[in-house]
Specification:
Blueprint (H helix, E strand, L loop, with lengths): L1 H17 L7 H22 L5 H12 L9 H10 L5 H38 L1
Helix pairs in contact: 1-2, 1-3, 2-5
């Protein structure tokens, strides 16, 4: 399960950051970004801002495997796991939030641009 969560969660993060690049994945990218933001903000009301159920489930598994002193974020955990370095948590949190906001802005812009183009094309076809 550790390997599954490591791969799945990492791929999801990369998709959130870069899924807007390909026209075919833009709509699902926007949905994933909105779900991530909802988790961080809405579930965050109850569990702490930035809450991610995938991190929670994965860290529970890691705890059962004997891991202790886990960081508060998955990104910090991933950086430590890949490099052995222990990054500054404030810097990681700022970079993580900034990445989400930037990807969300780009995804919203591209999705709405495509929606308006399709709408204009339909109007033109009717006339």
């Amino acid at each position: 399960m550790d390997v599954f969560f490591t791969v799945f969660h990492t791929v999801l993060i990369l998709f959130n950051l870069f899924g807007w690049i390909w026209k075919r994945t833009r709509r699902i990218n926007l949905i994933c970004l909105l779900l991530t933001a909802a988790s961080w903000l809405l579930l965050g009301i109850f569990y702490g801002i930035g809450y991610c159920p995938l991190t929670d489930w994965h860290f529970n598994i890691l705890g059962r495997l004997g891991y202790t002193d886990l960081p508060t974020s998955y990104i910090s955990f991933l950086i430590t796991r890949l490099t052995g370095l222990h990054p500054d948590q404030g810097l990681v949190d700022a970079g993580t939030a900034g990445g989400l906001v930037l990807a969300l802005i780009i995804s919203v812009y591209l999705n709405f641009r495509e929606w308006f183009h399709r709408l204009a094309h339909r109007r033109k076809a009717r006339n």
